[in-house]
Amino acid sequence: MWIREQKPDPAFSAPRFKQSRYHASIIGWTLSGNGNSRAEAMDELNTNFEKAKAKKVEQGKPLPRPGTSVPIEFASQDRVNLHLDLAQDFIQRVLELDWAWTSDESSLWDFHTEETNDRLNAKIMGIYGVDVSDIKSGNLSEIFERIASKEQSLG
């Protein structure tokens, strides 16, 4: 495990995100924690470790042995893959990107730094005529399912 001190970037401007002075990580793993002190960074790392451990137990998978490298595990794409054409259209028209890798756990929050999803929710309403403002998680799978459901009902 290691902890490093990070220098704040004065040019950093993302209202939803905070810069932390310290970053703690387990070497070879994708777990980390941040804080304004070494103790805060370690506390967040420990919290994230406990969450990862609980998820492994829930999945019936063993916890990686200390000292081993843990490969990145990508989330399932089963739900988003049910709407491939819609997903591509959405990525280009709503997110204004040429492409993006999305999973069943992807959300609007992954694609901006604003305090709310209001701007993207309004854009979705304008493009697809579907209100998704009640999907607070911004989960793309849920949004795609709602848009597809409306399109099917108009059939």
Descriptive tags:
155 residues; mainly alpha; 2 domains; three-stranded antiparallel beta sheet
| Structural class assignment | mainly alpha
Strand order of the largest sheet: 1-2-3
Number of helices: 4
Uncertain segments: none
Percentage of residues in strands: 5-15%
Number of domains: 2
> Which bin fits the share of residues in helices?
25-40%
C-alpha-based Rg, rounded: 19 Å
Average pLDDT taken over every residue: 93
Report the principal-axis shape. globular
The rounded distance between the terminal residues' Cα atoms is 55 Å
Count of extended strands = 3
Order of helices and strands: EEEHHHH
Largest sheet: 3 strands, antiparallel
Annotate the secondary structure layout.
Elements (H helix, E strand, L loop, with lengths): L1 E4 L16 E4 L6 E4 L2 H22 L24 H10 L24 H11 L11 H15 L1
Antiparallel strand pairs: 1-2, 2-3
Could you walk me through the main structural features you see in this protein, from its secondary elements to its overall organization?
It is a single chain. The chain has 155 residues and is mainly alpha-helical. It has 2 domains: 2-59, no CATH class; 80-154. The chain contains 4 helices and 3 strands. A 3-stranded antiparallel sheet has the order 1-2-3. Strand 2 and strand 3 form a beta hairpin. The longest helix is centred in the N-terminal third of the chain and has 22 residues, at 38-59. The model has no long low-confidence stretch (mean pLDDT 93).
